Amino acid sequence: MHDLTHCQLIYANDSQQHQVESLQALIEHHELPIVLNVELSVDKLTQKHRQKLSQTATQPVLLLDDKDKLSWLSDGLSVAPEWDKLQRRVVSAGRKSELLLQAAKITADSSVIDATAGFGHDSLILASTGAQVMMLEQQPIMALLLFAEQQRMSALPNWQKLMARLHIINIDALSYFESLKSDSAVNNSQVIDVVYLDPMFPEDSYQDSKTGKGAKVGKHMQALHQLASPPTLDEEEQLLTSAQAVVSNNASHSGRVVVKRPQHAPTLANQQPTESWHNEAVRFDGYFA
Q: What is the pLDDT of residue 206?
C-alpha cells in the first residue's frame, strides 16, 4: 500500500466544479494514493501569485487553470504534460526526424513499454507509429497529470486514436516487470517488442564536464528532479536486467531495450549497448535480445 500524498488543488473559477469532480473520479478509478484538498482561487493565477503559492505551500500544489489544464506547481513554475504542443512533432514523427524511432524500430503491430513515462512526450512519439504503448509512472502526482492530460486530449477528435493507444499505470517499473514474468509463466501471450528506459540521471550529467556543451536542464526535468532521485548503480543493473528479461520472451527474438541518455553520460549500469544513435544533446543506446 502506497503512503497517501496530500495535494492542494487550486482551481480558477466557480464553473469548474465538474472538472474537479472529474479529477476526483480519476483518482478513485485508478486507485491513486492521492488526497486532494480543494480550494477556489481568490486571486487570478498570475505568475506572481504562483510564485507566492510555491513559497507558502506546505504540500504539493496542483492548479486547474481557466482552460481546464491541470499543472503542478514547482518552484513558481507550472509544469504540465501539454501534449497538444507536440502536435507538429507527432504528425511528422518518423525515423528520419526522430532518433528514438530509429533506435526502437517499431511498427503499428508493436507493443512497447515506456517504463519511465514522466510527462509522456516520448510515449506520444512511440505511439505515433501505431504501436500500443504501456506507460509506467511511479509518482502518483505525475500519474494523475498523465491521466488528466489523456482525458483532456481524448475530447479532441484528431487525438482520439492516438490516446486509445496509450495505457497509463501508476506503478514502478521493477514491480511491473515482475508481474509480467509471473503472467507469462501462466500465459504465454504477452509479447513485448521494446522496453524504453529514460531514467533520471544526476543534473550535472547533461553537459560535457570539459566543454560545458550539451543540453540545458528544462523546467520539466527540474520538476522531475524534485519528485525522483537518480537510480543507484545497483538499481540501474536491476532495471536493465529486468527489462532485458521482458523483451527476451519475444519469440521472434527481435526484442530490444532502448535507453535514453544525455550525449556525454555513461552507459546505464556500465553495460555496453549493441548499438547507439546520437545527436548533439542525447544518445539512445540499444540492447538487443
A: 44
The C-alpha cell 492521492 sits at 34
Of 130 and 188, the one with more pLDDT: 130
- Could you give the CA distance from residue 175 to residue 71 in angstroms, rounded to a whole number? 27
Contacts of 31 (CB under 8 A, 6+ apart): 170
Q: In the prediction, which pLDDT does 77 show?
A: 84
CATH number reported for the structural domain that contains residue 107 in this entry: 3.40.50.150
**Owning domain of residue 34:** 5-79
What's the whole-number mean pLDDT along residues 62-73?
92
Name the domain boundary from 22, 49, 79: 79
Radius of gyration of the chain (CA): 19
3-state secondary structure string, the chain? CCCCEEEEEEECCHHHHHHHHHHHHHHHHCCCCEEEEEEECCCCCCHHHHHHHHHHCCCCEEEECCCCCEEEEECCEEECCCHHHHHHHHHHCCCCCCHHHHHHCCCCCCEEEECCCCCCHHHHHHHCCCCEEEEECCCHHHHHHHHHHHHHHHCCHHHHHHHHCEEEECCCHHHHHHHHHHHHHHCCCCCCCEEEECCCCCHHHHECCCCCCECCCCHHHHHHHHHCCCCCHHHHHHHHHHHHHHHCCCCCCCCEEEEEEECCCCCHHHCCCCEEEECCCEEEEEEEC
